[in-house]
Design goal:
15 helices; single chain; Penicillin V Acylase, Chain A; nine-stranded mixed sheet; alpha+beta
């Protein structure tokens, strides 16, 4: 225990995460047990929120009870973590102990279920087209993100520029503002946007001290039930902490892939200037790399065979739909308007874009890169004005990656805020959300930096 106390003495005073325009920046260090304990102790208030929110989120997204959800998750994932990922299991045990030391009761089984959250959508839908195909913009399946990565002749300086925003319900937004710097005793240090209690990002935005950066968007409408091998949240954590090249990232993400979180991953190697699109379903995948150009994600697989064989997605080119509209708009912005001009400033404009290509006008809503489902009464929506949208914006370039820093805007990617009181007064049909929604005011872009200046070795071992 003495090593744990030493860890806290070093970093707890100035490093425990004052809010920076909505973001909470925290650093953890050491062995799996040490960094887990530090995580649990520093983020105990946020873990208390997780405990309070989980029953509502599980009921809303999976139509089941928390006990049933935790039991199902642990039946699938606990044996895998114990046998295949002992280090990460010990980290979860550390989080539990650190939170308990501050009076917060969050069990290891609950933490496993929380980490598995994004893996379970396919499990609860049972992968059948009937459950998905008719829900054109069903909130939990209409996609979680808009993202792009560019390099070479696509950018102003030939460097890598990456941008991303997270689309989720505004209850989950209350948990999603953590910027966590992880300095493990072995492997690479890395930074990620995350929620308290998670081993990986789940917003899927990260930068590592060896120069690798990454983000992703989910692939809409999978029509299979996951066949669980190695869970995605362990595979992407392995990438961040232990992998050194883009090829290693692809190999790790494909290893015993369960199809549990179908994604279009966007990775970049800022030491070589190469970027990669790595799309993964269950049995199909698509890997592309370039040193000149751009890749983007809008919740539809770029690869036609993956989209056709493993999803119910028929909206790739349909601009009336959110997927097709964002597909068209990203093409306009990345390959026409900003081609050769992509930099930090223009990346912010891209990720905050409100142009609706279907209506051919500026109109924030479900079809825009910066999504605002709460403002939308589109005819395709089964639940108009659903409390969901872009809850953040993040951009970085090669220079920022060298110090594991990035620009972030929490609350939305744009200037439009969310006022809980006004929203519920206007939409009383969502009154059950009252205890879980939070205000998301318009906040400025903020440069997010490590809480402790540490020499970045950027070594590939």
């Amino acid at each position: 225990m003495s090593s744990l106390r030493k860890t806290y003495k070093r970093d707890i005073h100035n490093k425990t995460g004052n809010l920076h325009n909505g973001w909470k920046v925290v650093s953890i260090y050491g062995t799996a047990t040490e960094r887990g304990y530090s995580h649990g102790k520093k983020l105990y208030k946020e873990l208390r929120q997780v405990v309070r929110y989980l029953p509502f989120l599980v009921k809303t997204d999976f139509q089941t009870t928390l006990d049933e959800y935790i039991n199902r998750c642990n039946k699938i994932f606990e044996p895998i973590l114990i046998s295949q990922y002992r280090e990460y299991y010990e980290e979860l045990e550390g989080i539990h102990k650190g939170a308990s030391s501050m009076g917060v009761d969050i069990s290891v089984k609950t933490l496993i279920a929380w980490n598995a959250y994004l893996s379970m959508y396919g499990e609860y839908d049972k992968g059948t087209p009937e459950n998905i195909a008719n829900d054109v913009n069903r909130p939990i399946h209409s996609g979680r993100c808009s993202a792009f990565i560019a390099t070479g002749n696509a950018t102003e300086k030939g460097d890598i520029v990456m941008g991303h925003n997270t689309h989720c319900n505004y209850a989950l937004a209350a948990l999603s503002n953590i910027v966590l710097y992880v300095y493990p005793d072995k492997g690479h240090a890395f930074c990620m946007q995350t929620c308290a209690g998670l081993l990986c990002s789940s917003m899927d935005w990260f930068v590592c001290d060896n120069g690798i950066v990454g983000c992703e968007t989910t692939i809409y409408g999978i029509k299979y039930k996951p066949k669980f091998g190695l869970p995605y949240f362990c595979r992407i954590r392995d990438c961040m902490q232990y992998r050194n090249t883009l090829d290693e990232y692809a190999d790790t993400m494909l290893l015993s892939n369960a199809g549990d979180y179908a994604c279009s991953w966007l990775f970049g190697d800022t030491l070589t200037g190469e970027i990669m699109l790595c799309e993964i379903g269950l049995t199909r995948h698509n890997v592309q790399k370039t040193k000149n150009g751009a890749f983007y994600g809008m919740n539809s697989a770029i690869d036609d065979s993956l989209r056709r064989l493993e999803t119910t997605d028929t909206f790739h080119d349909t601009i009336q739909h959110s997927i097709g509209a964002r597909n068209e708009r990203f093409d306009q912005l990345l390959f026409h308007k900003y081609k050769g001009k992509i930099n930090i400033s223009n990346a912010k404009h891209i990720i905050a874009d409100h142009y609706d290509v279907f209506e051919d006008r500026i109109r924030p809503g479900v079809r825009t890169i910066c999504k605002h489902t709460d403002l939308s009464n589109d005819s395709l929506l089964k639940q108009p004005f659903y409390p969901q949208g872009a809850i953040d914006g993040k951009v970085m370039n090669t220079t920022m990656a060298r110090t594991m820093s990035f620009w972030g805007k929490f609350g939305s990617s744009c200037h439009i805020g969310f006022d809980k009181r006004k929203y519920l007064a206007k939409h009383p049909e969502y009154a059950e959300w009252r205890d879980f929604l939070v205000d998301l005011p318009n906040r400025p872009w903020t440069k997010l930096l490590p809480t402790e200046r540490r020499k970045q070795t950027r070594k590939r071992t």
